[in-house]
Write a structure and sequence with these properties.
Blueprint: E1 14-17, E2 21-24, E3 29-31, H1 45-49, E4 54-55, E5 58-61, E6 80-82, H2 95-113, E7 129-132, E8 138-142, E9 145-149, H3 150-164, H4 169-172
Parallel strand pairs: 5-6
Antiparallel strand pairs: 1-2, 2-3, 4-5, 7-8, 8-9
């Protein structure tokens, strides 16, 4: 990122963002053309306003991605905390977990309705992170190794397109017609 003029600042507390500056709580002023403020996932008001069980502010689900307080409710991704993984560093609030959870949620909703056993979702322990720099180049990281180039953009595109297949109803349900 430094090679193309992008400064990265972690763990900062921002007081104000203006069109040309970011003013930090400690008084530092950072001049900028464009400020990108990236934060982690936070619980939303819809969570606290509901009567669903919460954990760490997010909907509390079991290993079947089923609400621990309302067994007819299933959820995954950034809005949940899996109770059996609450003390582990994964699954993080990253899109890959939402995408991977989708087919399990779809199957488990059908299995719940048909009173069949639910399928357990076991999240992967790590994932490939890809950041698009907007110039045809991506930065990637996996297993602590960082890589960059136009080929990383092509890899990201290929992965994204293959994930779209997960949303094909014929893939999610063996007997989609019924």
């Amino acid at each position: 990122m430094k090679e193309i003029g992008i400064d990265y600042m972690a763990g900062c507390h921002v007081k104000e963002v203006t069109p040309k500056q970011v003013i930090m709580e400690d008084g530092r002023v950072v001049d900028c053309d464009i400020a990108v403020w990236a934060t982690g996932a936070e619980p939303q008001e819809v969570s606290t306003a509901s009567d669903l069980a919460l954990m760490k502010g997010f909907f509390r689900v079991n290993n079947f991605l089923q609400s621990t307080s309302h067994p007819n409710v299933f959820a995954g991704g950034d809005c949940v905390t899996m109770e059996s993984y609450a003390d582990k560093p994964y699954p993080s609030k990253a899109g890959v977990y939402a995408v991977r959870a989708g087919p399990y949620i779809a199957k488990n909703v059908i299995n719940y309705i048909e009173e069949k056993p639910l399928e357990e979702y076991v999240p992967q322990t790590g994932f490939l992170s890809l950041l698009n720099l907007g110039n045809g180049i991506n930065i990637g990281t996996k297993f602590g190794i960082t890589f960059t180039g136009a080929w990383v953009w092509k890899l990201k595109d290929m992965i994204d397109m293959s994930f779209m297949d997960l949303f094909n109803p014929n893939y999610l349900f063996k007997d989609y017609e019924n």
